[in-house]
Amino acid sequence: MSNDPGLKIGARLYDAAYYQGNVITVRPDGWDRGEGAVVYSLAYLGMRRLGSLQAPVEASASDGPFRQAIGRVTHVTVWAYRPDTWPDHLDEHGTTWQQYSADTADLGTWAARANYVRVWQQADDGVFDLDLLTEDSFRAPVTIME
Fold first, then answer.
1. Complete edge-to-edge strand list for the sheet that includes strand 11-16
2. C-alpha triplet 21, 22, 28: angle, nearest 5°
């Protein structure tokens, strides 16, 4: 097997704020390895809403015993509507989609707006915020699970 990425830590998605209610774990898609992106409808995941999330960071091996380096950051992107086409620019960020890269105890208004979710990872030396919605990203295949 070439370039085994190892076990990927999944994002934990909760249907209520403050990490309460039903929880599911979604593993990152293979976009960071050149594979297609996977976007899930909340209905497909069996969730009625997305109230909070935990997006863990994977540590990488470090040089010293008391030092831990960040290896991969988990991102969760949510959309209000089915992401059929990607916008040509980022103007819609915050209105039709939102990205989270850290534990978020309360998604606020996005708890009622989110209908689709994607979990993906990025190495700590990768270009930050490089997602399928940015102008500079390549157009990887996208699978929408409904």
1. 20-26, 11-16, 52-54
2. 125
